[in-house]
Amino acid sequence: MMVSKTLAQSIVDKQLAADKLEQFKEEMKQLVGKALKNSNLLELVENYGLTGEDLLSFQCTLDVNKVREFSQTDEGQKASELLPALPHDEEQLSVFAIGWCFPCATWCH
Predict the structure, then answer these.
(1) 36 vs 19, 29, 31, 102, CA distance in Å?
(2) pTM
(3) Mean pLDDT (the chain, rounded)
């Protein structure tokens, strides 16, 4: 009975971690998009006569090993909540990879 209770808790912990990780990914994508809109990037590409969908693409990755290391510190307690959702066999986790459209200055997809 104790084993199944522990397994059930492990499943719940993993789902909560996955939900938090997805929320982090979405918030990161929104913040990067906002930063790009507020930058002079549009002006720069216009100066060079560049426009179009997927003109630039951006990729954001999370260093899984560094998250694991940080989660072992006193300051990393909150980061440890993400550990169950992190891949065990990869060093990098893609947060997002997306194209940026000019001149509309938005994510293409």
Answers:
(1) 26, 11, 9, 11
(2) 0.79
(3) 86
